[in-house]
Design goal:
This protein is α+β, with helices and mostly antiparallel strands and about 325 residues long. It has nine helices and eight strands. Among the domains are: about 55 residues; about 70 residues, N-terminal domain of TfIIb, CATH 2.20.25. It binds a DNA duplex (14 and 14 nucleotides) through strand 5 and strand 6.
Length: about 325
DNA sequence: CGGATTTGACCGTA
DNA sequence: TACGGTCAAATCCG
């Protein structure tokens, strides 16, 4: 928990750098042909990026202990009992990050208001198993990305009702999405997602602008972090303020996981979906991703351009001047 | 009929 | 050996 600061510094730099890239993209996208959804998504992403950066500055490290709420970090809190979620009423939403030695994963608890709170997180999932878990009152369901075979997406998730409160489901995400699922598609729900399936690859080739799954995780610490006040915000974006008082709009609670699997630190918009294989090699060692980012980008789709860290100069003295991005 | 779900079997790990 | 995770055949569903 107490760290030298190297990790968060790097994260901070990367966050800022991502904000830079996103802003540049937004600049390019602002125009008559631009879809409002894309712009809005970029804006939210940018805000989230800076939000995280600010959070890092504000709280220092301990990211592994953070619970992330509404796309922002909050200082460490106990996971159970008296947690904010218990008071958050319907839109209650909380992320919990649990450390795992060999299989880091990121767990989110979602209160189910209707019957479908188990997974409409913007991705399409296919259930592949269910198990009764020892000591648990409810079985655990296993899902993998629908596009596992088509695009080699290795993202999986586990959904299990909470013993303590059946109205809450714990969703544990593992791996990251390497498939392309746009926010417009995702935010339109499953119907859109169904339509999209047939055109997934076309979408990939047509608008390889950015990956709509984004996020932030730290696998080397055995945890994953993430979440944006995502693209599906119906109206007002989060205003980057006050991380303590933010509450989710109702729709957000089922959308905010969109990018849970992505390593935004290294994945930049245009081609940030190429690290799926990384996870296999480095679930518990982020350094492997860092040291050999391009050696494992053997996506089955074969036509993805992957971001090369070589292209990124993580200058410690990175200067950030927003004005130049809009010039 | 194709894709998604169910469910028992199988496998790896601790 | 028990348990969690995955596979795959059977079944369901639109």
């Amino acid at each position: 928990m107490e760290q030298t600061g190297g990790w968060e510094q790097e994260t901070l730099i990367n966050e800022l750098h991502q904000g830079y890239e996103l802003t540049k993209q937004l600049k390019h996208h602002i125009g008559p042909l631009t879809s409002p959804e894309s712009c809005e998504f970029l804006v939210h992403k940018i805000i989230s990026t800076y939000d995280r950066a600010l959070s890092i500055l504000k709280f220092g490290d301990s990211a592994g202990e953070f619970q992330q709420v509404a796309g922002t970090f909050e200082p460490p809190q106990p996971l159970t009992g008296g947690s904010p979620m218990s008071e958050a009423s319907d839109q209650c939403h909380k992320d919990a990050y649990k450390k795992r030695k060999t299989s880091p994963r990121w767990t989110e608890q979602v209160r189910v208001c209707s019957g479908k709170g188990t997974g409409d997180d913007g991705f399409t999932w296919r259930k592949y198993g269910q198990k009764d878990i020892l000591g648990a009152n409810f079985p655990r369901a296993y899902y993998r990305c629908t596009h596992r075979h088509v695009q080699g997406c290795l993202a999986t998730k586990q959904v299990q009702k909470s013993d303590a409160d059946p109205s809450i489901v714990e969703i544990t995400y593992r791996g990251r999405h390497t498939c392309i699922q746009s926010p417009a598609l995702a935010s339109s729900g499953k119907e859109f997602a169904k339509q999209k399936k047939c055109h997934l690859l076309e979408e990939n080739q047509r608008i390889p602008l950015f990956n709509f799954g984004t996020g932030f995780k730290t696998e080397d610490m055995g945890i994953m972090e993430e979440t944006f006040p995502s693209f599906s915000f119906p109206s007002s974006p989060s205003k980057t303020q006050n991380v303590e008082t933010i509450s989710f709009p109702e729709p957000l609670k089922e959308k905010n996981l969109l990018g849970s699997e992505f390593l935004s630190v290294f994945e930049f918009p245009i081609d940030n979906f190429g690290f799926g294989e990384n996870l296999q090699h480095s679930e518990s060692d982020l350094s492997e991703i860092i040291s050999a980012p391009t050696s494992v980008t053997n996506s089955p789709t074969g036509n993805l351009d992957f971001f090369s860290l070589d292209q990124v100069d993580f200058d410690p003295n990175f200067q950030f001047d927003a004005s130049e991005f809009f010039s």
